[in-house]
Structure formats: structure tokens, C-alpha cells
């Protein structure tokens, strides 16, 4: 299992399919292009047996801070710890002390299980409640914990 930064100009079909789990299909080419050209963004693919089974896209927002913009795992590989492993790898790679994400009700439990503090943003879109998730790594502790 390895994580690979995506820098190719052409999006691979497996990656396109994964991003379509986290974004509208018609927006994926522009989203991918932004990851390739913007130095503050990074899109990483999680590889198993040379197949892309997960992806995480982040945007650096300051020293030691980033936002998860996209996070997806192939349905056949979900609930195997891949998303959590991608988050940990990105945190180590960029020496992140703070990581945030915005999500829907379906993913709140996942973020909480990874140590994120979760707060409601209310009904951001008609009939759709959104949530703000924030993870802060505390130095000097054996275990990372979330904070408000």
C-alpha cells in the first residue's frame, strides 16, 4: 500500500471514478486541473496492487494547516482503514498540526472516529445539513486528540 501524488496532466479513469464519489462529475476535470497546477493543493492516490482504491485532496491553508477538499475510497474497499491512513499520511507528509474538512451527515461518524471535533454549519443547501470537522494535533502527547 502506498500513496502517490498525482501530477499527470490527464486524469486516470479510476481516479475520475473516485472523485465522482466526492464531487459532481461535470466539475471533476477542473478540480483535477487545479490540483495539478496549484502548488498549495495536492491530490494523492492510495494504491493497492497497482490499483487506485482511494484518494485525498488537500489545500494548504497556512503553516502546519490544511483543509481536506476531497476524500473518497472505492466502495469495495471501504471500512478497511484506508481513509484514516490517507489522513495520517498527509498529516505526516506536510507536518500538519491542524486539519479541517466540511462534510455531510453520512461522514460525520467517520471524522469523529479519526479524532475530529464536529460542529453543525446548519442547512447550507436546501434540505442538506453540513458539518465542519476540525482536527488539532497536540505536541507532546502520546495520542493525537481533536479540539474545538
From TrEMBL:
Molecular function, one GO term: acyltransferase activity, transferring groups other than amino-acyl groups
Residues passing through the membrane, by range: none
Cited Gene3D superfamilies: 3.40.630.30
Superkingdom: Bacteria
PROSITE patterns: GNAT (PS51186)
Domain N-acetyltransferase: 1-137
Pfam families assigned to the protein according to its UniProt record, in alphabetical order: Acetyltransf_1
Protein name in UniProt: GNAT family N-acetyltransferase
Amino acid at each position: 500500500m502506498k500513496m502517490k501524488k498525482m501530477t499527470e496532466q490527464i486524469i486516470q479513469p479510476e481516479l475520475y471514478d473516485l472523485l465522482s464519489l466526492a464531487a459532481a462529475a461535470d466539475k471533476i476535470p477542473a478540480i483535477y486541473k487545479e490540483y495539478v497546477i496549484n502548488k498549495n493543493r495536492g491530490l494523492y492516490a492510495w494504491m493497492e496492487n497497482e490499483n487506485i482504491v482511494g484518494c485525498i485532496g488537500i489545500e494548504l491553508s497556512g503553516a502546519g494547516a490544511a483543509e481536506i477538499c476531497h476524500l473518497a475510497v472505492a466502495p469495495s474497499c471501504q471500512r478497511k482503514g484506508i481513509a484514516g491512513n490517507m489522513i495520517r499520511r498527509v498529516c505526516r507528509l506536510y507536518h500538519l498540526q491542524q486539519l479541517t474538512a466540511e462534510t455531510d451527515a453520512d461522514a460525520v461518524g467517520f471524522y469523529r472516529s479519526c479524532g475530529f471535533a464536529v460542529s453543525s454549519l446548519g442547512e447550507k443547501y436546501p434540505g442538506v445539513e453540513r458539518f465542519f470537522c476540525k482536527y488539532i494535533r497536540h505536541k507532546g502527547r502520546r495520542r493525537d486528540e481533536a479540539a474545538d
